[in-house]
C-alpha cells in the first residue's frame, strides 16, 4: 500500500504504531507513553 493509515489494526510489528514502540538497542516492546525503554533505558529518539 502506498498510503499510510493513522491507526494500524491487528499489526504489532510496526514501529510507527501508536500503542507501542520497539527499542533500537534491545528490541524490547515499550509503551508509546514512555520515551525511554523499560528494559535498557535507551531513549526512543
Topology readout:
Elements: E1 20-22, E2 29-31
Antiparallel strand pairs: 1-2
How does this structure look, described?
The protein is mainly β. The protein has a domain at 16-45. 0% of the residues lie in helices and 13% in strands. The protein has a two-stranded antiparallel sheet with strand order 1-2. The protein starts with 19 loop residues before the first strand and ends in a 14-residue tail after the last strand. The model has no long low-confidence stretch (mean pLDDT 75).
Structure at a glance:
With 45 residues, the protein is mainly β.
- DSSP helical segment count: 0
Query: Structural class from helices and strands?
Result: mainly beta
- Between the first and last Cα atoms, what is the distance in angstroms? 26 Å
Order of helices and strands: EE
Overall 3D shape: globular
Give the overall average pLDDT: 75
β-strand percent reads 5-15%
Number of beta strands: 2
Flag low-confidence runs.
none
Helix content: under 10%
The main sheet orders its strands as: 1-2
Could you give a short account of the major beta sheet?
A: 2 strands, antiparallel
- The radius of gyration is 11 Å
